[in-house]
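Structure first, sequence second, as always.
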């Protein structure tokens, strides 16, 4: 059998192909890790990475090579991966994209990081993200990316004058540019799916609670969920199999659902699969290019034997006000621990304790984080809790009920990930509401705690955005990740959108 390495460079191989080549000892884990490290430094201008530790990375790679040589290979042995800087790691800085945690070194690894390491994955480094995962463009990071002398935004490899999406923009950019075959991300309101769409890769957010939140710096605890970002559904299935599983001793929100092999049913037929198409996802504000690409993808699903079913998610528009009450409320509580006392930044000049709190938080939090803390504190305050927060929680329950009603007539739900393709850097920086509106299609599934993913389905054709990737969202019912991945994989077997890569990479 011809080795994939005989025709493709290592960075052009998928996780599955790399795993096969490593197991066959056609390439060593050390060679592979060094290749991706060199490549990441060569493309430092993208701003994707914020920290490296070559010694730790190569030590992990040598250990993987030793296991492979001894016939004790693990599922992902030697496969390089990079982690969003929202996960704490012992061997790399853990800053959550904030000045508040600049230089912070965790004494332990997040459960997701640990699980992937136990599966044999080799950590290349940490990836840039919006501060505390708050943002849709990755322009809210306060970090200086590796290879830069001052702050710089993460850039979209398809057009370096565009955003990569957020908050997992560094993860999406790194995978799209072939700086890493896969990366971890987190999704609170769409932060895996939206950057995956904007950068032309595949990403999946599992059911809330399927992957442990232990060691993931908290933004909104009832919404945050970890997931993988890679080039294909097959790769995501391999990674998700390692990431998921109960963690009751360290995460009280962890589901008591056993880990499973999400690759087991990838090749199953989707003949007769009922795909719900919500009318609310195709209304005013959806760009013509996105609509055309999603429509074409739905036709491809029909050709594969699936059936399209019109459905309604009537409270879709309410997801934005609901999310931007609940998420900031939880953020204001979670971020209260950052006060300059036990860890993180502390104001150098201050008076009494209260003054230290104020100056520390004023200096170290960025504008978007401050905005959300103030909103959250307001809606939780006396006299407003019932009017805002409690009402938002009631509507959240109704949004979840809308999905359950829809799933009575369909197996999966499909639609656009975002109304448009990636916008230009700085285009919406001074308009927070415009950024918030870009999450209209991803927020409902997050509020309901459902699994969802983005797969590449086309490219923009209009002159202004020509060639920019477009993703389609697939949503499943609770713990139906295997069905989602099966549908995505069958689509990718019939199309080649996920194989395209940006020029120059």
């Amino acid at each position: 059998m011809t080795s994939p390495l005989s025709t493709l460079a290592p960075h052009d191989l998928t996780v599955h192909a790399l795993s096969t080549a490593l197991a066959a000892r056609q390439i060593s884990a050390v060679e592979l890790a060094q290749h991706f490290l060199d490549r990441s430094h060569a493309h430092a201008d993208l701003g994707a990475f914020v920290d490296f530790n070559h010694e730790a990375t190569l030590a992990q790679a040598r250990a993987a090579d030793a296991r492979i040589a001894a016939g004790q290979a693990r599922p992902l042995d030697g496969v390089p991966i990079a982690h969003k800087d929202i996960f704490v790691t012992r061997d790399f800085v853990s800053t959550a994209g904030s000045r508040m945690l600049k230089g912070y070194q965790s004494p332990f690894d997040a459960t997701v990081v640990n699980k992937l390491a136990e599966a044999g994955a080799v950590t290349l480094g940490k990836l840039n993200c919006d501060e505390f995962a708050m943002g849709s463009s990755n322009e809210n990071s306060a970090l200086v990316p590796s290879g830069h002398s001052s702050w710089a935004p993460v850039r979209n490899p398809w057009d370096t004058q565009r955003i990569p999406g957020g908050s997992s923009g560094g993860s999406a950019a790194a995978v799209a540019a072939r700086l890493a075959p896969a990366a971890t991300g987190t999704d609170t309101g769409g932060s895996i799916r939206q950057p995956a769409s904007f950068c032309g890769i595949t990403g999946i957010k599992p059911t809330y609670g399927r992957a442990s939140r232990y060691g993931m710096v908290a933004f909104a605890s009832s919404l945050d969920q970890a997931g993988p970002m890679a080039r294909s559904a097959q790769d995501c299935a391999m990674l998700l199999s390692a990431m998921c599983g109960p963690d009751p001793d360290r995460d009280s929100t962890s589901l008591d659902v056993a880990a499973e092999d999400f690759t087991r049913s990838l090749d199953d037929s989707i003949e007769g699969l009922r795909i719900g198409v919500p009318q609310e996802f195709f209304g005013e504000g959806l760009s013509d290019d996105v609509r055309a690409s999603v429509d074409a993808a739905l036709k491809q699903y029909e050709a594969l034997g699936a059936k399209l079913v019109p459905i309604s998610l009537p409270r879709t528009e309410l997801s934005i006000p609901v999310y931007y009450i609940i998420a900031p409320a939880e953020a204001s509580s979670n971020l209260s621990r950052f006060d300059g006392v036990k860890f993180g930044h502390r104001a150098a000049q201050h008076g009494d304790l209260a003054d230290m709190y104020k100056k520390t938080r004023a200096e170290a939090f960025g504008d978007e984080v401050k905005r959300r803390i103030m909103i959250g504190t307001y809606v939780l305050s006396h006299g407003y809790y019932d009017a805002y927060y409690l009402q938002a929680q009631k509507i959240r329950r109704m949004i979840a009920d809308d999905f359950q009603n829809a799933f009575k007539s369909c197996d999966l739900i499909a639609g656009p990930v975002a109304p448009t393709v990636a916008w230009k850097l700085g285009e919406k920086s001074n308009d927070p509401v415009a950024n918030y509106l870009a999450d209209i299609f991803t927020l409902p599934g997050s509020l309901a705690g459902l699994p969802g993913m983005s797969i590449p389905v086309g490219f923009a054709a209009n002159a202004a955005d020509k060639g920019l990737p477009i993703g389609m969202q697939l949503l499943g019912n609770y713990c139906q990740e295997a069905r989602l991945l099966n549908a995505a994989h069958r689509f990718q077997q019939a199309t080649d959108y996920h194989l395209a890569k940006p020029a120059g990479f």
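Margin note: The two ends are 27 Å apart (CA to CA).
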